[in-house]
């Protein structure tokens, strides 16, 4: 049976880190897991490489920017969680690589969604979430940027498709599914839906999870939006789904449904590639 014993949560200098930290702490307490907060950002020098052309005097200024950001992150950590129950680690330079590698040693990774219209000078690349999910291959809980407090993950919607990505997401979510009050599986009208229902409901039952099943007809224009609307109708606290994408190095190409959900989510989403 899948267990949840190690949680890695990404932290940057944004205020939204607080919700991720508290949710990671909540999950750690519920599952008897160890949690580690990892501050990982792109340094000011890498964000503004042309600044050094203005002269060597810029180096101390860029270092000061980095220090201000890490101090802000430390303050958020201190206010948000019990430092005796959660570890703290700092790295800087290549956050995408640093987090993706460290995630290999965690049962669950917690990241934060970036708002599509966010024009702030941010700490991580714009494709950070999708690239880490695909690059690490680990179950990843993405917290929406609009979240102001962690929520109990009691009502779960599982978007099922008979693919390795979907199977890995469900396996990674099993500890949370076992504690949920209601689990609903939705499958869109592809192939033998009856066999799909028997397969996934039977698998969950073998692991002690009782779930309802819904069959939906996929809308051609935007299945991702349809899925998020269904999650709202179900009053879901958590959406579980595979993350689909391909490419090499940083040239990831997300599938349409995955892209829509990552950009437009309003509830936590557990994804796996």
CATH fold type of the largest domain: Rossmann fold
Separation of the first and last Cα atoms: 20 Å
Q: Topology as H/E string?
A: EHEHHEHEHEEHEHEHEEEHE
* Uncertain stretches of 5 or more adjacent residues: 248-252
Approximately how much helix is present in the residues?
40-55%
Q: How large is the count of helical segments? A: 9
What shape does the CA trace take?
A: globular
- Computed over alpha carbons, the radius of gyration is 19 Å
- Derived from helix and strand composition plus strand pairing, the structural class reads alpha/beta
Overall tally of structural domains: 2
Report the biggest beta sheet as strand number plus sense, adding barrel if it closes.
Answer: 10 strands, mixed
Overall pLDDT, averaged? 89
- Strand percentage, roughly? 15-25%
**Order of the strands making up the biggest sheet:** 3-2-1-4-5-12-9-6-7-8
Record field, number of beta strands: 12
């Amino acid at each position: 049976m899948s267990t949840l014993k190690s949680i890695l949560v990404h932290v940057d200098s944004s205020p939204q880190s607080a919700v991720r930290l508290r949710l990671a702490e909540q999950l750690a307490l519920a599952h008897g897991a160890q949690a580690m907060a990892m501050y990982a950002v792109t340094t000011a020098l890498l964000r503004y490489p042309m600044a050094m052309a203005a002269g060597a005097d810029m180096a101390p200024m860029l270092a000061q920017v980095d220090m201000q950001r890490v101090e802000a992150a430390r303050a958020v950590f201190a206010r948000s969680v019990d430092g005796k129950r959660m570890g703290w680690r700092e790295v800087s330079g290549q956050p995408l690589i640093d987090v993706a590698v460290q995630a290999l040693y965690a049962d669950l990774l917690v990241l934060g969604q970036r708002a599509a219209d966010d024009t702030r000078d941010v700490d991580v690349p714009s494709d950070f979430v999708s690239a880490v999910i695909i690059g690490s291959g680990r179950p990843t809980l993405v917290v929406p940027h609009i979240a102001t407090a962690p929520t109990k993950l009691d009502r779960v919607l599982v978007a099922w498709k008979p693919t390795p990505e979907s199977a890995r997401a469900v396996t990674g979510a099993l500890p949370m599914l076992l504690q949920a009050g209601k689990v609903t599986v939705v499958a869109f009208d592809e192939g033998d839906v009856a066999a799909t229902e028997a397969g996934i409901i039977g698998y969950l039952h073998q692991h002690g999870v009782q779930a309802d099943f819904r069959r939906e007809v996929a809308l051609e224009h935007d299945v991702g939006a349809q899925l998020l609307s269904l999650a709202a109708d179900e009053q879901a606290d958590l959406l579980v789904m595979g993350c689909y994408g391909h490419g090499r190095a940083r040239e990831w190409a997300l599938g349409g449904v995955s892209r829509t959900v990552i950009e437009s989510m309003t509830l936590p989403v557990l994804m796996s590639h």
